[in-house]
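Section 3.1: Structural characterization of target chains.
Under the original work plan, the team committed to producing a structural model for every single-chain target entering the pipeline before any wet-lab resources were allocated. The record below documents one such target. The sequence was received from the expression subgroup and is listed exactly as submitted; it comprises 331 residues.
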Amino acid sequence: MTEIKSGTRLAPGALTDVAGIEVGHATNLIAWTGCTVVLAREGAIAGGVVRGLAPGTRETDLLRPATLVEKAHGILLTGGSAFGLAAADGIMRYLEEQGIGHKVGSVRVPIVPGAVLFDLGIGDPAIRPDAAMGYAACQAATAKDQSQGNVGAGTGATVGKLMGSGKAMKGGLGQASVKAGHLIVAALMAVNAIGDVVDPSSGQIIAGARNVAGNGFLDTAQAMRHVIVRNVMAFQNTVIGVVATNAQLDVAQANELAWAAHDGLARAVRPSHTLYDGDAIFGLATGKVHAHQALVSDMAAEATTLAILNAVWAAEEAAGLPAASFWRPEQ
């Protein structure tokens, strides 16, 4: 259990609060990488929105409205940059063995969209999530998962990299859920941003780029107005995640769910959706509860913000990078 800074508590809930959703992780603490799988064995109406301009993704075109296949059976969130997409092969093999997938004649084809983040700079860049790791994450998947911090896709995540990795802080994986009656909207986010993570309730940075002295925050958004943003940090950042609900949504509405989740991302990560990020969020709907789209979208934004905050509060120090729960900047 991660020790949380005095006065701080993790927001409650997990993606698995949505019935029919399972989450599993594969983690390598030697190479500092890993992957997270979200399973919907019965299939869930799926959407996806990429807002960052340096993404690494799989099957995102399939999630647009008016395409033939409306449901996904799994979502991959992974480290390893583009190499990590290989983990989806293991997820597809696992689901095929379980008889899960889109029926095409006598064959079941699992639909597994995915997105990657760059963690090759923190551990061993020669070791990346692969098919075996994706398969292992499926085997570990459970409907009761509440894992957060240095686990799965968040294992090698870092934040606040404007001044280079030496002044960054540890990111991680976070989960949270928001409920209104029988309606549940939950988020799972792997936070690996060039920007700072900000608590919108106070406006305070809780994890991000440290100043030159290393005893306080730089404030990335302000610093970018006065320093040259160097391409050395390009392609090394991304916030990826899944937001799920038990609401009845169609594909267009599932995409709106993902769009709303990006609003929650922008509240908590400053700046977000940059040229140097590959920010991507998937939306899943299991279709059990009638709910108004406006309410679902508002809850999606809130759940995403809370999951991002949880990700950095639950993270632990790694590779010499401090974590929010342990590092206290000078006032």
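The first helix runs from residue 87 to 97.
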